[in-house]
Amino acid sequence: MTDSVRYKVLVNDEEQYSTWPAHRANPLGWHDCGPVGTRQECLAHIAEVWTDLTPRSARRSSGSDAGHTR
């Protein structure tokens, strides 16, 4: 059985990424930031762009957020 649901990539203010069904409204605090496609395509995009899993607030408090932009 194949998954016919289309997904989108979301990001929140902490720069954490997630997949979400494309036909559903985004959860509060999450914004579109990548492709719409299969779940695997979206996960591949996340793996490519989410290289630092540390939440943005933790990077700021440690002073390591200087080079990060969104």
TrEMBL record:
Pfam families named among the record's database cross-references: MbtH (PF03621)
Any one of the GO CC terms: cytosol
GO biological process, one term: siderophore biosynthetic process
Domain MbtH-like, chain residue ranges per copy: 1-48
PANTHER family cross-referenced by the UniProt entry: ENTEROBACTIN BIOSYNTHESIS PROTEIN YBDZ
Protein's name in the database: MbtH family protein
Organism of provenance: Solihabitans fulvus
